Sequence to fold (295 residues):
Amino acid sequence: MRVTFWGTRGSVPTPGPSTLRYGGNTSCVEMRTEAGTLLIFDSGTGIRELGLHLARQAEQVSAHLLLGHTHWDHISGFPFFAPAFVPGNRLAIYGARDPNRSLRDVLAGQMHPTYFPVPLGDLRADITFCELDEGTLHIDDAVVRTHLLNHTCVCMGYRVEADGFSVAYVTDHEPYGALDDGLRVSPVHDGDRGLVEFVRGVDLLIQDAQYTPPEYAERRGWGHGSTDYVIDVAVQAGARRVALFHHEPTHADADIDRMLEACRTRSREAGSTLEVVGAVEGEAITLARGIKKPG
Ligand SMILES: [Zn+2]
Ligand SMILES: [Zn+2]
Fold:
């Protein structure tokens, strides 16, 4: 299985010299199984470049787009996803069920003539919609589990098992019960325990690490996590590797470097062998046989 980051930034695109290394496009992650099944997580502005890449690779594209939620930074690239315009391509779009509005209506809304020249209904690909509750679904050779997150709107986290590996995509998410003393995962809050169980033992955890702990203290209720919380979840879950994701727009590359170092220190102090990386736009992580941990 190969995981490629096309957009790693949170909230708003941030092109410019200070974000060259980690990237300025908003959330989009490609996951490709060995059999070729294509899963795409979120359609932030990063999906535009992914679409061009796919169009260069093959005449026909069949993709499964799994949206965590529909805030702008997770859907605003969708109207620029070139394969959606091509007859014969197939695009299955999944998202958390919202009792107040359909997933299709939300995506059509941002393509209303007020905002965009081409309405959703004019897209020529075969597009289907699937609204999800918590549970398990099978997409070709991938088993996908869903888990509701703690955000400011209905928001779904995903865990994929394929090729003998597991990857979790958890953004945007705020601690349920962060404690004041260092924001360690609350030992008592069912929500945090539930997330730890959901990502237990994954080979790669991609998680919202938007804030440093002091920043988070100032932004409680905004729906995002702190780096300490991400490390605590990853360590307690026994994840093999964690990728800090959904980078804060005001953070320059050097800020994210410092957050990474703090995360590695926290993980070491907890006695963990967790590998901590920052999600880098344009980089891929390959999970292949031979490097799988035993057992
Ligand atoms: Zn976001
Ligand atoms: Zn959001």
